[in-house]
Amino acid sequence: MSDQIESASSEQFEKGPVSSREAALLAARAADGKKATDIIVQDVSELVGITDYFVIVTAANSRQVSAIVDAIEEAMRKRTGEHPVHREETRDGSWELLDYGYMVAHVFQPETREFYRLEALWNDAPVIDLSAEGFSGIEYSDRIAEMLGSKRVDAASDEASGSDGE
User: Fold this and answer.
1) Burial level of 68, CB count in 10 A (0-12/13-18/19+)?
2) What is the pTM (predicted TM-score) of this model?
3) Which terminal residue of the chain has fewer beta carbons within 10 Å of its beta carbon, N or C?
4) Which residue has the higher pLDDT, 14 or 63?
């Protein structure tokens, strides 16, 4: 899978700076390549003064958490030449965080993600439609699927009424 990320990175991009949105999508693709589930990319730039995007994903166990984090770091390093400015992890491997300044990636095991519910905490943040970005087959839990479904209904209602959601 790492070869696919490397191949995709070298085929599609030249090494160098990327937008915060591109970095978030790169992290989401790397996580998807390691079979992460419940992948969400939230644009928190209007709500949080310290970063633009949260990438929140679920891993089945601590080994997968580590593998996903390693894949995100590798993809970012190969594409941008950057390393995270900060990295945190729990002792039990149930949550790891990579902070790139403009993008923060959270990789959770299911129970820890359910406990913290970061995507619900930042519920007002727009969620990037990953299917429109070329992702397919992402597996979602019932809770995340319901949240994403209601956000799509809200967005469709805003479009139909001519509102921008404010």
Assistant:
1) buried
2) 0.83
3) C
4) 63
